[in-house]
Amino acid sequence: MNILLIEDESQIADFVCSGLRSRGFEVQHCENGQQGYELALKGGFDAIVLDLMLPGRDGLDVLKGLRAQDVQTPVILLTARNELGDRLTGLGLGADDYLAKPFFVEELAARIQALLRRLSGERQNHLQVGPVLLDRIERSAKVSGQLIELTTREFKLLEYLMRSAGQVFTRAQILEHVWGYDFDPSTNVVDVCIKRIRAKLASGEVGDAAATPQCIESVRGTGYRFRVEP
Ligand code: CA
Q1: pLDDT tens digits, the chain, 230 residues: what are they?
Q2: DSSP characters for 200-216?
Q3: Ligand 1 mean position, distance from CA 99 (Å)
Q4: Which domains does the chain have, with CATH numbers?
Q5: How far does residue 51's CA lie from ligand 1's centre (Å)?
Q6: pTM of the model
Q7: Distance, CA 69 to ligand 1 centroid (Å)?
Q8: Ligand 1 centroid to 52 CA: how many Å?
Q9: Cα(108)–Cα(201) distance, integer angstroms
Q10: Cα 213 to ligand 1 centroid, rounded to whole Å
Q11: How many beta carbons lie within 10 A of that of residue 201, not counting itself?
């Protein structure tokens, strides 16, 4: 994770830099508000740790400028005890969190991680229908908690059906979405791929796989759909 630290007090900057680096973060440090703003504008940071009182440009103004430029990189403000008003203003301007000085670097690292986890929206990355759980970030699939190996194509097809579970898709729709170009409609690649996915899903099922209804149903004469639990 790549962090931009905008902080003019060298003592604080030093311990934050070394503390975060020792925890596996990459840190770029900048001690001037305006330069920090320009760096942040260029992007490429997972989070910005921003001091309030800065030479060049005030921290709140940096924050305001970034949000006005639609830079949505998460920002954690570093505030002094007597800066409660600024802290509230900062949250109003779109800061994601704040930390009052003095603080432990462990606390800052934990806040950054919590923030990034929260923002990555774990719920959005996970798609679950019935016993099947897809993790779109890791591109992994589990059936009843058991990991199964899918190829990129198989994952894409399964995700496509699961995203609109219950809806029937024709072979042509599946072809176009998963393979991305116009195949000969008489090709059986979809059926072959579905067959492989079914076998893998069945292998992950706990208990008697044969007794478990198919997650992917064939709809005669039309195509396929992912079964929604009754
Ligand atoms: Ca300062």
Answers
A1: 889 999 999 999 999 999 999 988 889 999 999 999 999 998 888 899 999 999 999 999 999 999 998 888 899 999 886 777 888 888 888 899 999 999 999 999 999 988 887 777 655 678 888 889 998 777 889 998 899 999 989 999 999 999 888 889 998 889 888 887 666 767 889 999 999 999 999 887 655 555 456 899 999 888 999 998 75
A2: HHHHH-SS-GGGSPPSE
A3: 13
A4: 2-121 (3.40.50.2300), 127-226 (1.10.10.10)
A5: 6
A6: 0.56
A7: 24
A8: 6
A9: 42
A10: 63
A11: 23
